[in-house]
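Handout, page 2. Input:
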Amino acid sequence: MAQQANSRKQQELQLQYSNYKNTLQTIAQKIGDIEQETEEHKLVIETLEPLPQDRKCFRLINGVLVERTVKDVLPALKTNSDGLKQVLDELLKQYKSKQEEMDAWKVVHFSFGRSPPGIRASLTHSAEKE
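Output:
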């Protein structure tokens, strides 16, 4: 009976650990996507800034290519870029917070280096990846 309860607790801990890792991985993926999009905005802004304001350019809006001028497009790009930077900052805060939460959880459940064997293997395996 005690072994069954211990096994159930170990499964619950493994599930909690997996949830933390999956959440961190999802946030990291979103951070990567936003960073890439921010870099693309930066390149387009750097390309358009030296051009004459009345020069025509094209912008993809909801899958439709529309003709505009540099004067019309540049402010929208800068606004979008600033918004992406704010989202990126927020995601980085979320990641750090979740990482700290997971580290605190590890300390509470695996103090003195005595984690259950199944969890210990997962922790060791994930530490090797990082």
